[in-house]
Amino acid sequence: MPNLFQTLTGAELRVLKTGSGPVWTWYEYDQRRRDGGPVEHITLLDGNPPRALSSHAYIASNVQLSRLSSPVRMDIMLAFVVIDSRAAEGLTAQQLADGAAVLGLSMIDYRRVPSLNHASALQLFADRSGRSRIDGMTRFDAAYLHALYSGESGLPASQRITVIAQEIVGTAHPTGLAAHGSR
């Protein structure tokens, strides 16, 4: 089904083709105004039927401009998660579902999962030794997803990262995140 890959850039396609797994993810997203309203794509009117100049060229009207936040946000419309059957072997349905959900909602580059300092459902696909201590979504995963999807949209990446980190520490740490990140 090639249409599932039509929105990916050449670089994103190369990563999918050359990635060794055990999981692969890609997303379809839509640009929206910070308040959730639609943006209009800039179209070419060159005597042919109108067509979008680029998926990244758009007009966001009726927005409040600020140096501190972006007037446009990206909303995930679809998340694709493919898990190698060998990586899924031995996992419970709960572990598999939670791992796929965290992966699909977090937009984390799976190649960076080994550098996580806390237990996460993301580690279930690579680390067979840690499977017995991770039942599914951990406190860290829940705190991260909550922080990622709450708060003000449109913050620059550096500010958003700081807000997410502060919320994770404030939400998860007092309840035992430092002690292996168990449920």
Spans of at least 5 consecutive residues whose pLDDT stays below 50 are 175-183
Shape: flat
Arithmetic mean pLDDT:
79
Please state how the strands of the largest beta sheet are arranged side by side. 1-6
Strand proportion: 15-25%
Order of helices and strands: HEEEEEEHHHH
Whole-number tally of structural domains: 1
The rounded Rg comes to 19 Å
Report on the architecture of this protein.
This protein is α+β, with helices and mostly antiparallel strands. It has one domain. Helices cover 30% and strands 17% of the residues. It is built from 5 helices and 6 strands; from the N terminus they run αββββββαααα. The strands form 3 sheets. It has a two-stranded antiparallel ribbon with strand order 1-6. The protein has a two-stranded antiparallel sheet with strand order 2-5. Strands 3-4 form a two-stranded antiparallel ribbon. A hairpin with a 6-residue loop joins β3 and β4. α4 packs across α5. The C terminus is likely disordered.
